[in-house]
Amino acid sequence: MVIRDTSHSVKDTATQLCTDEVCYQSCEQCVSRHVSMCSVLEDAELHTIADISKTIETKAKQQVCAEGEAAEHLFNIKKGCIRISKMLADGRRQIIGFLFPGDFFGLACSNGYSYTAETITDAELCRMPRSEIIAKFSELPALGEKVLNITHTELQKTQDQMLLLGRKRAKEKLVSFLLNIWHKSPASETNADHEIYLPMSRSDIADYLGLTIETVSRQFTQLSKDKLISITENQFVKILDLRKLERIASGE
Amino acid sequence: MVIRDTSHSVKDTATQLCTDEVCYQSCEQCVSRHVSMCSVLEDAELHTIADISKTIETKAKQQVCAEGEAAEHLFNIKKGCIRISKMLADGRRQIIGFLFPGDFFGLACSNGYSYTAETITDAELCRMPRSEIIAKFSELPALGEKVLNITHTELQKTQDQMLLLGRKRAKEKLVSFLLNIWHKSPASETNADHEIYLPMSRSDIADYLGLTIETVSRQFTQLSKDKLISITENQFVKILDLRKLERIASGE
DNA sequence: CGTGCATTTGACCACCTTCAATAAAGGTGG
DNA sequence: CCACCTTTATTGAAGGTGGTCAAATGCACG
């Protein structure tokens, strides 16, 4: 098992082992069955994937894989929120992305994981051996194509984030982030009434946007004072003026 | 033709048409024949690619494709240096990457080009219809796999750049950039004697690193004064203390 | 030798960070 | 259920890195 408990550590980087149990589960009832990479598979093909997959349940604040470690597995998220991050030698952290159900990670890692993955909430992951999935690309061309498509979308989002990190001001960064999270949150949730659920901490948001927690907090307060958003609880934000927020995010 | 002359414009963003000619060329003698995506193709398969490819020669400072435009073509670089960039509404620019022979662009653009591509030097490009290349993925699985691999590497580099943009200081950014360019410049060039050729302007470097030209310039001067590099001409930089530069780039 | 552009350098300033204190939220045990 | 402690978030004051504005220098090209 690769899951490590990091909940009692400074900056969430400890490496105690935890003992969550691995269990087999049918892919047919999986929440990701008709999204993500599995959606291109026929039922028959699905079984060959199911045979090499294990479902892993983890608590919040657990490390799933570590930057530099040999990349044996690919992970598909079934439930919860995951953060992917990289660190500099002195501990400065950059969060590369927040992942949600249907997203996967650990594939683009031929020379070991290029990032650390940690659970933000309690989570359920589907774990499969990288090598066997890669081997299936020639067997199941549709799978390779689907993965390529997903990777392309991923690349484009990462390039958008480069624009954000390199050229946007603090307020623009936070607003862009809020709108992005809002766009990808399922309609079933609080989406309809313009409410956003933020599972991650202010510190996570800061490290994602290339800011400090203090600046993130001040920008939240400012947006709130300007009546562009309202903050009900710390993790729930309501969009009050979508049009203005969109203009801010695009840098007008 | 999609090439536009931008050499006489403010910030290189004009859209005058130019009339460089398109010509057919055999893929066999192409400099990219044994690198990049073409390397996985058999000679026979190469012909089917050759049939849909055109070689385009362009001068420096020409726009090859524009952010937002319908993405009809994929471009493979045979000669020269290309910059890929995105812009905010008010003109702030972020350069996503500098591309060199063997690199390609324009594939991950299902909803129109997500960036603008411009030549920095005189260049030679191999242009092919996106749809036909994508269609070949099912026909030639090896091609799809190769492209997936390249895209994965690209994604990892982009994530490294996120760390740079979000968490590195000006000096660390510039040093990281210099070392990256040095690593990817062919050994045949000035590599052996620790010399780096920089085809791009200070303004390009600034927009790539999320800085201003003034800061880039000051950091060059500083590194020079600290005897870590020496600047022979503006476009040629010599590495004097590789060990120290590597430590700066990694954030120690 | 002058014109035009890129780069460098200097002085000043602002945005964001850093440091510090306070407040709020969450978890644990009595 | 509340007291206590820890963690997380907010707010304030001061400072620094890098940005802005402006001028000078260097360089290519006619």
Write the layout of secondary structure elements.
2 copies of one chain form a homodimer.
Chain A: E1 4-5, E2 16-17, E3 22-23, H1 43-50, E4 54-58, E5 62-65, E6 73-79, E7 82-87, E8 93-99, E9 104-105, E10 116-119, E11 123-129, H2 130-139, H3 141-167, H4 170-184, H5 187-191, E12 195-197, H6 202-209, H7 213-225, E13 229-231, E14 236-239, H8 242-249
Antiparallel strand pairs in A: 1-2, 1-5, 3-4, 4-11, 5-10, 6-9, 6-11, 7-8, 7-10, 12-14, 13-14
Chain A binds a DNA duplex (30 and 30 nucleotides) through helix 7.
Could you state the CATH homologous superfamily of the largest domain in chain A?
Jelly Rolls
Question: What's the total helix number of chain A?
Answer: 8
User: What would CATH call the class of the largest domain in chain A?
Assistant: Mainly Beta
List the strand order in the largest sheet of chain A: 2-1-5-10-7-8
Identify the most extensive interface between protein chains: A-B, 44 and 45 residues
Query: In total, how many domains does the architecture of chain A comprise?
Result: 2
Helix content of chain A: 25-40%
Oligomer: homodimer
